[in-house]
Fold each of these.
Amino acid sequence: MARILACVLMLASFTFAPARAQQLDTSLSDKQIVTKILKDCRELYVRAVGACACVDERTRNSPNCAKVLRELPESFKPFCSRKDVTLREVSMYRMQNEGFIDRRCSK
């Protein structure tokens, strides 16, 4: 009886395991994912605060950027360049867990 119960539990775990597992998106290369993260982030922060979120968009004489930057919280650090996106973020994107983009790129 114990063997039958053990077999039933083992079969049940194999049956339901794929439903709980996260699907990895392997259709894109790491470079393509980094490019997509940068694009998605840029779209979010432009909607949230406009331009000026990244250093390469600011000019020394831009009063609009100075005002925008003063109003941003300290935690606002969008993905601005490839070096800002780590392998952890690429993995999270592959696991279809894209909430980190929203948390980091919107105000």
Amino acid sequence: MPTYRVEDAGCDDGRMPGTPRFLTLADVAEVLSTSSAQVYALVRRGDLAAIKIGGRGQWRVEASELEDYIQRMYAETRTFVDQHPYVEADSPD
């Protein structure tokens, strides 16, 4: 009996092969080089979309949501930098 694979259905979700669809908060913290507590705060504030699964209410972040969040942060940072240009202090002569 042949096995069914997502690739056979023509589904391309943009993830690299072997990349999980959902990440734990600890996984996200590692990607962002921050703490799990900071990631939890991002999720609870609604800055980073996540789902709660299972009886113990484990949080999971979809990899595509993490990528969207990262892109939003790049855009916000560009806006901030544009609005607050870096000016080097006059050097003493």
Amino acid sequence: MAVSHPRQRGVSIGEVVLVVLLVSIIAAIVIPRFKNITMDAKYEACRTNVANINALVQLYYIKEGTWPQPDLSDIVIDGEYFPELQMPECPVSPGAAYEIWPVGHRVTGHVKGNSVHP
């Protein structure tokens, strides 16, 4: 007795094009959002660095009775403030230097070239 197999149907080219089109549309929407999320996280990490450095500047003033150097070199070389003996690096602008602004003795951002953020 011969066994008959039902005819198997493959995927049509139209279905493949539709799936590729839908995946492309979703990718076009989602990928830019991830880029924005990543940049926002980097800016937030920089703001956290600034807040931590400002707390250390205040602590230095309380302990030493004077403000640290504008480039923060005296805080960096003292292992009590930065145990790694180095300033945290900005995730937004690697190589940018955090500095104390003369008015108010606070780090409000950092300088790299002509731009200041956060």
Amino acid sequence: MTNQTSFPATGAPQPGLSADTRAMMIFEANKKQNLVAYLLWFLFGYFGAHNFYLGRTGVAIAQLILTLTIIGIVITFFWHIVDTFLIPGWVRRQNNVLATQLGAGPLCF
């Protein structure tokens, strides 16, 4: 006997779950968090780890390459400081993109 409300890997809708409930569960499982972004920024920020986490792959690669060069480390130092103030907006934007993709529309936090 199988449970009808289980979540198969196929992502097929299950009886008993509304589309809104399913979308909210997916959102909660995949949303980005400020704490994680700041921890990555603090521990591995010079290498762009927080940018990788927030889906900003191109920026993260540029930051990583600059960090590996002698002259680029000076640029990355200031870049790292500026990122401190921009992380909350990037997290909010990434979560809004996810909510829009799931059909919930932009969220206001």
